[in-house]
Amino acid sequence: MIVVTNFRRWAIALTVPAGALAICFYVLPILQVLALSVTEPSFGLGNYIALFQNAAIGRVVRTTLVVSAMTTVLTIVFSYIVAFALVQMRPGVRRFAMFLVMLPFWISVLVRAFSWITILRRNGVLNSALGEAGLISEPLELIYNQLGVIIGMVHYMMPFAILLLYANLTDIDGRIIQAARSLGARPFTIFWRVWLPLSMPGLAITTLFIVIFSFGFLVTPAILGAGRVLMIAEYISVQISGTLRWGVATALSTSMLLVVAGLVALAMRHPAFRSAFGGSQK
Amino acid sequence: MAFLDIRMLRKTYGSAVALDGVDLTVQAGEFVTLLGPSGSGKTTLLMSIAGFTRPDEGGIVVDGHDVTFMDPEDRDFGLVFQGYALFPHLSVAENIAFPLKVRKWDKARIAAKVEEMLRLVDLTDYASRKPKQLSGGQQQRVAIARALAYGPRILLLDEPLSALDRNLRESMQRELKRLHQETGVTFIFVTHDQEEAYAMSDRIAVFHAGRIVQIGAPREIYANPQSLFVAGFLGGNNIFKARHAAADGTLTFFGNACSRPPRFNPAVHGKEGEVIGWVRPEDIAVGDPDAAATIRFDATVVDISFVGSAEKLTVTTTDGQELTLQVPMHFAVDIRPGAVLRCAVKPEAIGFLPPDI
Q1: Rounded to whole angstroms, how far apart are CA atoms B143 and B293?
Q2: What values do phi and psi take at A105, rounded to 5?
Q3: Which of A136, A224, A225, B307 has its CA 20 to 30 A from that of B228?
Q4: Cα distance from A195 to chain B (closest Cα, Å)?
Q5: Domain-by-domain residue ranges, chain B?
Q6: Domains of chain A
Q7: What is the CATH number of domain B236-353?
Q8: What is the pLDDT of residues B317-341, one digit of tens each?
Q9: pTM value?
Q10: With contacts defined as CB-CB under 8 Å, which chain A residues touch B75?
């Protein structure tokens, strides 16, 4: 049972202004907008039924799922490698490596997307370098397609994933690894039998994080896909500000919100997630 | 030739010297305890034997093979950690099977060995539990079973009992002693607890500032500390100052002069002037009437504290030295701080230490 002391009463009272602000200017407007999905243009579930009948929306959803899945897999693999290397580094080297990992956080997502264009386009840095080295005769199609979008998204997601995985890996007791060595296990065995199983909670949380984030990507796919790789967020944005089909846009938003909430709810049934999201409520 | 032969081992961390030229030989099947305060180098030595610490100088030879720079995974020693270090994602049986799987034993042989180890540490009913479902003592037994399963030549134990409460610790000590006898494996045990060292070891190596300052059987070390550090570290000892007058061959302490006690050797303990002596609390008798050979002195009670089996008295002698002594409970009933007691000690119970350590 929670004992309501004077201190607690004060603490709760202090959260009231921020809470009220959030409810008035964030929660209520969102509910208002989402309500449009059942009232615009006429009352009913018409917009939701349209989601399943509209071939264009089907394509957008498929694209989003494929791009998100690819982004998640690649981000997890690359980030795990980096995080694992970080754990093994000497403190001085690790500080420098950590700095490099954090660097992208200081650069706007817009700048990053345009930087990728200069690197990846037909006559960009990468293609000219490979061409001059004689490795390719025709420029590679690295951008304005799914590949370009995935490159940009993986680059955006990796620092988050690395930090999450690094935090998880540093939680693994070094003595357990030493114990495995003293029992005669070689590095490869230790990786598969000890590091990887003990990383599973961290990998699961990071995967969920990236999947949810990937669904909502707007700027990166818009710039690096140049309209050819249409994902849900950009589609919604076009419906809201371009074609003004607010009913469909909000129905799509609501569905996405429910899917993400469903994923989180499903994940929370696992104790590792509960402890990750709920703090230290052991 | 000794089974484990450690020569002139040195290890420094920056300017801190962890091991300062350690020599140690251990016979096969021996139970040797490395005893010392934290930071004295005992764990560094253990980790050097295990292969996790590379010494700067010196060498470690096991059974005629130099293992100084061999990787830990190639050494075939068992290692038991202070925090148990069990694999949290594996069951008790899987933890014990881990080193066997690594060694590519066939399934039937692994199953039989796991069964045998579980029986050895009395955990047969817990085979499928995960480590966190076990108590500290049970986890420790799993760690020991895991480290013994593949028949290591040496079992290294790094303060394995320090996290357990007193009763459990004592039963685990008996358990370790039994395992040592049943398996015949060489045990090297690190602890800072002298009672633990006394209870289990064949020999104890006392560590101080990166060196082994004394090594010997428990009773021998207890009876004959050879330096001020050992006499002080093996707790409860009374260390006092005496004045040696070479001219008439007397020692003056606790306010009276007596002829040299039998264990006093002027050549070792000091030819003239101040010398250092020690006496065990249990060797000081209070109000002892007999024996003409005893040294008698008066002491004033400063403090009385009950330690369970006896009353512990802190007293000051007439020359201002503080001593601890033990008296039976019934005896202490009338004693109050400030009371003056007549004490006696046999001359042969008094030991002396060389001055410069």
Answers
A1: 54
A2: -60, -25
A3: B307
A4: 10
A5: 4-228, 236-353
A6: 1-39 (no CATH), 45-277 (1.10.3720.10)
A7: 2.40.50.140
A8: 998 899 998 888 887 777 888 888 8
A9: 0.82
A10: 182
